[in-house]
TrEMBL record:
Name by which UniProt lists this protein: TetR family transcriptional regulator C-terminal domain-containing protein
Domain HTH cro/C1-type: 13-67
Organism: Lipingzhangella rawalii
Spans annotated as Disordered: 75-110
Domain HTH tetR-type: 109-169
Domain of life: Bacteria
Lineage: Bacteria, Bacillati, Actinomycetota, Actinomycetes, Streptosporangiales
DNA-binding region as annotated in the record: 132-151
InterPro entries from the UniProt entry: BetI_C, Cro/C1-type_HTH, Homeodomain-like_sf, HTH-type_TetR-like_transc_reg, HTH_TetR, Lambda_DNA-bd_dom_sf, Tet_transcr_reg_TetR-rel_C_sf
Keyword Transport: no
Keyword vocabulary terms for this entry: DNA-binding, Repressor, Transcription, Transcription regulation
């Protein structure tokens, strides 16, 4: 990223800190970043890493895309969410460049995010039907009334857990992929970012599996799943289209190849996550890389 563009990123981060009501040291603690590293990044003596941009965006309630470009509508390496005109207008008002953060809104925003994070973790680890609101409140060190104030039902929290997973994936893709110009390398990295690695990515897969189950019976969850999956599909297709235009990828129907790749990732991922014998992360990666080498790269 050019220095002028990074200067704009630093300016947005400084504005986020000012609007949050936190001191710079308190904000660094909130995002899990050493105060000296934050200070150096803000003064330009070091660059923000991808993980730091993700943490800042998560804490501030914005996207990495917004941090990098100042708008969620700019073309980027991953598909953006579709919003109605009123929501787009709200996003672009000068008075609210960083949603959720005003000089007196930091603690309240932090509490809501804490509840979502706790629900996300518990649902991923235990399963939606095994989690109670009291469990979430206990993790947050608050009351069930506080949880219900923000989220009236447990189902609301499953919806937010899925939205959180989609945002995490989008932020991760933009933060990691935006600086990779080689389309072959970018495609392989995009695939790697979707593999069910142990830890947070495996937990994301757990959330997805539960949303898939709910979507088979619940029309509203089906709508949420459809929009969430659209972004994944369009991100993959966009990468394939760019690869063809650059001459790196061969001549194929990008829509059909996108369906094939995303379905293959889904199917292999489910087998890995559910512990099917002989289906490992390395095996999944090898299969996907062989498809890219054989059917996607220009021969």
């Amino acid at each position: 990223m050019p220095d002028t563009a990074m200067d704009e990123v630093r300016s947005r981060v400084r504005d986020i800190i000012r609007r949050s009501g936190w001191s710079q040291r308190a904000f660094s603690a909130e995002i899990g970043m050493e105060p000296t590293k934050l200070s150096k990044a803000l003064t330009g003596t070091r660059r923000f890493t991808a993980q730091e941009l993700i943490a800042i965006a998560e804490t501030a309630g914005v996207t990495v895309h917004w941090l990098l470009n100042g708008t969620d509508d700019a073309t980027t390496v991953a598909a953006s969410p579709r919003t109605d005109p009123r929501e787009r207008a709200r996003r672009h008002t000068v008075a609210s460049p960083a949603p959720g953060l005003t000089p007196d809104a930091g603690p309240e925003h932090s509490r809501k995010r804490q509840i979502i994070d706790a629900a996300w973790t518990l649902i991923a680890e235990r399963g939606y039907h095994a989690v109670r609101v009291a469990d979430i409140a206990a993790v947050c060190g608050t009351s069930t009334a506080t949880v219900h104030y923000h989220f009236p039902t447990l189902r609301d929290l499953l919806v937010e857990a899925q939205r959180s997973s989609v945002k995490q994936a989008f932020d991760r893709q933009v933060a990691v992929l935006h600086s990779i110009e080689d389309l072959h390398a970018r495609l392989l990295r995009l695939i790697e970012l979707q593999l069910p690695h142990p830890g947070k990515l495996r937990m994301e897969w757990s959330i997805w599996l539960q949303v898939w189950t709910s979507a088979t019976l619940d029309p509203e969850m089906q709508e949420l799943h459809t929009e969430s999956y659209r972004r994944w599909h369009e991100t993959m297709q966009q990468t394939l289209v760019e690869g063809q235009r650059s001459g790196v990828f061969g001549d194929f129907d990008t829509e059909e190849m996108t369906k094939r790749l995303t379905s293959l990732i889904d199917g292999l991922g489910i087998k890995v996550v559910t512990g099917m014998p002989g289906r490992t992360l390395d095996d999944m990666r090898e299969t996907l890389h062989s498809v890219v080498a054989r059917d996607i790269l220009r021969s």
